[in-house]
Amino acid sequence: MFSSRAEWEEYQNPFAYSRLDPCNGSKKVLPLAGIRVLALDDHDDTNRLFSTVLELEGALVKVFNTALPALEVLEQFQPELLICDLAMPGMDGDQFIVEVRARGWRMPAIAISGRCEQDCIAQALALGFNLYMRKPVHIKELITNVIQLLVPQDLDTFGR
Is residue 49 situated within a structural domain? Predict the structure, then answer.
């Protein structure tokens, strides 16, 4: 998405995308400022977690309980990141990512599941997810993983 850390930092606007830190009153630049995230989970509490945590870091988040409505908003919302539960009614997470990739979307995608068997993880990654996280999702791990997927970490190897 970004070709360099400088491009990422330019995209981040500390004047428009900052908030006061409640602990010390200083301004905090939001690491996910303006990033559009599409999150899918059939549990409302998980969707609330995703939206609350990511919005506090500056992201614009749309959550869905099922995959079909999420597919309908891809073109309009243009997400820069997907977070998707694998076990959902109707179209599951594996089927969802296959459809997303078939439509030409290449944004980073995180699979979320309570299962931790190696074959389940390998299948999710082979189908198009970039990262696999096991439930219960820990907030700090979620934010760290999202930032690592979106922000170039090593400028010498980025884009290769």
Answer: yes
